[in-house]
Amino acid sequence: MLKIEDLKVAYGGIQALKGINLEVEEGKIVALIGANGAGKSTTLRSIVGLVKPYSGSITYHGEDLSKIKTKDMVRKGITLVPEGRRVFGNLTVLENLKIGAFYRKDEKEIKKDLEWIYTLFPRLKERTWQQAGTLSGGEQQMLAVGRALMSRPKLLMMDEPSLGLAPLIVKEIFNIIQQIHKEGVTILLIEQNANVSLKVAHQAYVMETGKITLQGTGKELLTNEDVKKAYLGESVHG
Question: From CA 126, how far away is CA 136, in angstroms rounded?
């Protein structure tokens, strides 16, 4: 579905990505984990065209993504839930959700999808008319995910969905990610929280200083000693 080959990106002479290869198969949850500054967000920004690589390729169903404008990616079925949620604080929950359906004209289906999002996130339904800026961090994250789903994505990319959230809320968000996946949405997760992301991921990649250093199934990486030491806070004997 999404294929990144030998991708290289530089900012002002500093190489942020040093020839990475990554694949997201249709119908899978794929996690890209790594410390802050490893190049995870640069990878995402390259996919959606906000950063131009100087070599390598990114294809989506065989189509070169570098030839597609960022704003047109939604029409192709690619949606990003950005880091920091980026909800429109002065608009209501409902208005934020409707912005997600900006390109759609199928009013009946939009209503259906709104109901589906309210079943996924009952808390949003209770707060339909509330200004998004007055929601808690967890509720804003739910709203950001709901807004992305309103575009009916085939590939949903999430940049640090657990960042700054309490453990219970993180658990809830990841349960919902699995539910969304069951509805047939392919998911690419960019996460520092290796523990939760590897538990839900079918396939996972570890990134360090602009390189993919490890890859395997989520289960394989959860039991990998190097991953345990670096990301799961466990000693080799732990």
Answer: 13
Cβ(37)–Cβ(15) under 8 Å? no
User: From CA 73, how far away is CA 23, in angstroms rounded?
Assistant: 18
Cβ(194)–Cβ(169) below 8 Å: no
CA 49 vs CA 2, 52, 73, 124, 146: distances in Å: 14, 6, 9, 31, 23
Identify which of 105, 198, 88 has the alpha carbon closest to the alpha carbon of residue 146.
88
Q: What is the pLDDT of residues 184-227, one digit of tens each?
A: 999 999 988 899 999 999 999 999 999 999 999 999 999 999 89
Annotation: CATH topology of 21-50+67-75+154-238: Rossmann fold (3.40.50)
Please state the pTM of the whole predicted model.
0.90
Domain map of the chain by residue range? 21-50+67-75+154-238, 78-152
Q: Looking up tokens 């995910």, which residue turns up?
A: 145
Per-residue model confidence as pLDDT tens digits over 132-169:
999 998 899 999 999 999 999 999 999 988 888 888 98
Q: Closest Cα to residue 65, out of 54, 78, 81?
A: 78
Spatial CB neighbours of 112, under 8 Å, sequence gap ≥ 6: none
Tell me which residue has tokens 């960022």.
Answer: 70
Query: How many helices (H) and strands (E) in the chain?
Result: 10, 10
**Residue 58's closest CA among 86, 31, 27, 20?**
20
State the Cα–Cα distance between residues 38 and 113, nearest whole angstrom.
36
- Cα 29 to Cα 203: distance, rounded to the nearest angstrom: 7
Beta-bridge partner residues of 215: 205
